[in-house]
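Why do we bother with holo predictions? Because pocket geometry can differ from the apo form. Keep that in mind while you read this record for NAP.
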Amino acid sequence: MSRNLPKVGFIGLGLMGKPMAASLLRKGYSVTVFNRSKKDVEELVALQAKSADSPKEVAENSEIIIDMVTDGPDVQDVLLGPQGVIQGAQNGTIVIDMSTNSPDVAISTALELEKKGVEFLDAPVSGGDKGAREGTLSIMVGGKKEIFERSIPILEAMGKTITYMGKTGSGQAMKLCNQVAVSIHTMATSEALLFGTSLGLKAEEILKVLTSGAANSWNLQNLGPKIIARDFEPGFKAAHLYKDLKAVLRTAEKENLPLPGSTTAYELFGAVLAAKDGEKGTQVVARILEKLGERKIS
Ligand code: NAP
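The structure, written out:
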């Protein structure tokens, strides 16, 4: 079935990783998976994935290894740790980190892997859990051009728009730009709904008008209806957007660049975490705005 395709390893089977690995299996790749929570592993084994006991064991059985974990320290743990990919990878193996962290993590990880002859791409994604399930993610890639070109078929098995951004770290730089816009759009969606409904407008009508004019956005289309339905289940966890905004502001500070919109979003998402709602979807920020305004979107 997968005779001419490289053997793939996949580490991190969360909201994003599980459907991405499933896409690869559907396209005929032989995939060896590792995840700490075993329930998610069983689901993929049922789809013909092979299971490994550590990232090291994934590396021993794979030519291309993808990781989709949470943050920079997690990436470095699964790639460079004592049971990490670096311990089992062969010279020439390609590692693709698709989680969101920061350009400096990508650069230092690539340097460590290079010492063992292992190639590295930073290739974070946008498009949410829906894009992961449908194989339509937008993937932004940093690293050596030649390694990017060799990796295009596997990236196309998970995504629809694949963009080469430049040297190592550029994929993460692009993803942080994306998170600046996403976080401000999420605030905008919640704020417009709160403002409009407090003026007596109907929430559904506000969304209909906003999505048919200049204010339209992915957030309004996808998160607006969830806010109205009071569905705060995660496609993208609020805690993850908070960690991304932290990386945005840390990176901007090094550039002496003020980002007032992102700073406000960071504070609001900090309040979401303080309210113990970090595991909810990012649309839960609407509840913080409701508390501040002492009224509800209804
Ligand atoms: P998630 O559902 O919380 O899953 C995170 C996965 O990483 C889990 O499988 C977790 O294993 C694993 N993990 C975390 N730290 C680990 C460590 N130190 N060692 C081994 N495994 C570890 O998160 P997600 O939504 O899939 O997001 C994954 C990445 O994609 C994040 O960087 C996120 O910012 C980014 N992203 C998410 C979305 C989205 O819409 N969800 C969109 C674009 C990008 P356990 O289950 O065992 O804890």
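Residues 170-198 form the longest helix (29 residues).
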